[in-house]
Structure formats: structure tokens, C-alpha cells
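Data card: per-record layout.
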Amino acid sequence: MFGAQQRDIDQIAEYADSSIRQMVRTGSLAPIAGRTGLNRWLYDKWGNRGNAIYTALGSLLTIGLSGLIAWALDEPLVFPSLGATAFLFFETPMAEVASVRNTLIGHTVGTLVAFFWLEVFGLVGEPSAIATGFTADRVACVALSLAFTGGILRLLRAAHPPAGATTVIVSIGLLTTVEECAILLTGVLLLSTAAWCLNRALGVPAPVWTGAK
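The structure for this 213-residue chain is written out next.
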């Protein structure tokens, strides 16, 4: 349709709402089939402004919950790239990049790849680049971490852009121990579970695992 080949549409749908295959767009959440509850009411009443309210509300509740649990457990379960992940869960909840599958695989690959390059360059346990400044080894570690993360996720068809931020967070030395990386991934699992449950509760039929049709 409109001169696009099916492969082109599928590739676009991977990064946007997968309902784009319908070629109907009137706001980022508009094409969701089977929407109900609060999500449907917001869109029917205010259109894209309702979508904006939904994205803001979902992001507030999920990050707020993660923050409260982090406070209660005294563990750093919230980190910068989770903000982008939360945004995707509610801005494009049916997209493959926002699926539970891509989220878990993306952040896990980003973390493991960065930790691998920290080991290669002997930077595990060293002060972060924020504290000491960048060295040639640190620059190489960051660049290789991001490059390999992107390549591996592309091969796995598990693209999740916030994972690029995660691999940089680890590779610049903000998290350098196995325990810290485990806490990071626990935070990812917590937010993914909360966001999926909230989407379902508020009327978005978010996929259980992957956004692929």
C-alpha cells in the first residue's frame, strides 16, 4: 500500500506500533486494536492528548513503583536507561522494541557485552570515567560495547534502543561488579513486569512476550 513493500512495512512496524501494517496513524497509540478501559476512554475523549496522558500516567506509576521498591530495599533498582524503557512501554506498547522479549534481551545483552569489554581492558572495579576522565582504553571499551550490543541485538532481532544507554552506563564504569549488574537486570525485570501488568489493567492488550505478529 502507498508503494511500500511488505518487508518495508514489517521493518517500520518493528520500531513503531505494529498495527502500522494497517497504514492508519492518528497519534502514536491510535491504531491499537482491542483497546479497552481507561486507555480507550482517554483516546476516544481526547485523541492524541489522551495518548499523552496515558504515556505520562504509565511512566509515572511504573518508575514510581520501581523507586519505592528501591527505597524499601535500599538497592539502586532505577537507572537512566529505564526511563527510556518505561516511555516505550506506554508510548508504543504494541511495538516489538517495547515488548517484554526485546526489553529483557536488550538490557541483558547490553550489560553482558559491556562487562566483557571491561574485562578485556582491565577496567573491572576501576573508578568510572565520570570520576577520572576518559582514557584511550575507556573510549575503546565504550565504543566497542555499543557497537557489539547493536550488532548482536540486530542479529537476534531484539532491538531495544534503551539497551544502548545501558551498555554505555556499564562500560564507562558506573556499574562494574557482577552484583551491581545483577541489581541492574533485576530493575529491568521489575519495570517490565509492572509496565506489562499496568498496560493490561488499563486496557492495552500488550503482548505477553513479543510484539511480533
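Known properties of this structure: DSSP finds nine helices and no strands in the chain. The chain has a mean pLDDT of 88.

See the next section for split statistics.
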